[in-house]
Write a structure and sequence with these properties.
It is a single chain. It contains three helices and nine strands, in the order H-H-E-E-H-E-E-E-E-E-E-E. With 181 residues, it is of the alpha+beta class.
């Protein structure tokens, strides 16, 4: 008779150590994954703004003027993807722009005469003589292309814009609840 039996399996301490290690790895990996997801959702706006600008330049070369396009898709920006849909009244069909699939951002194109416009949704650190913030952008005669979205669903809108005179796509600091369209 064998008095010493061979023990198989894990002890409670070994299992607890494995659970702690998995918890630590999850605490590190989940925030990184969420940041990666937001970055990937946010990359949509600059890509689409660039495509809209390219189409605007082609339209302007052909017709001698820029085309205006109303905000699309029609619903307010939120954390869910929205269908672009088919709409012949927004102006994007005139430009020949339609993103493939659904979008997180709401896009619009405004035409502008040379002027300085108030952008209530921007954050700027310059102040006038009275101490009021100077939230303005000078637009030359041309276009103002913008995309606004709330990719994380917290009610704070991230906005990107571009003009025909500036090749940079500018990201505006997020502002809670303010829309540009």
């Amino acid at each position: 008779m064998n008095l010493l039996k061979k023990k198989e399996g894990f002890t409670l301490i070994e299992l607890m150590i494995v659970v702690v290690i998995i918890g630590i790895l999850a605490a590190i990996a989940i925030p990184q994954f969420l940041r990666y997801q937001l970055k990937s959702k946010t990359s949509e706006a600059p890509r689409n703004l660039g495509a809209i600008r390219t189409n605007e330049e082609a339209f302007s070369a052909k017709y001698g003027a820029f085309a205006q396009a109303a905000a699309r898709p029609g619903a307010a920006a939120n954390a869910k993807k929205q269908s672009w849909g088919v709409d012949s009244t927004s102006g994007f069909d005139t430009l020949g722009f339609a993103p493939s699939g659904t979008v997180y951002y709401v896009y619009g194109v405004g035409t502008a005469v040379p002027t300085t416009v108030q952008l209530a949704w921007t954050t700027n650190t310059t102040f006038d003589a009275t101490g009021e913030p100077q939230d303005t952008q000078t637009l030359g005669g041309g276009i103002f292309i913008a995309g606004q979205g709330d990719v994380d669903g917290d009610g704070t809108f991230g906005t990107f814009y571009q003009t025909n005179t500036d090749t940079k796509i500018v990201g505006v600091p997020p502002v809670a609840g303010e829309t540009i369209f």
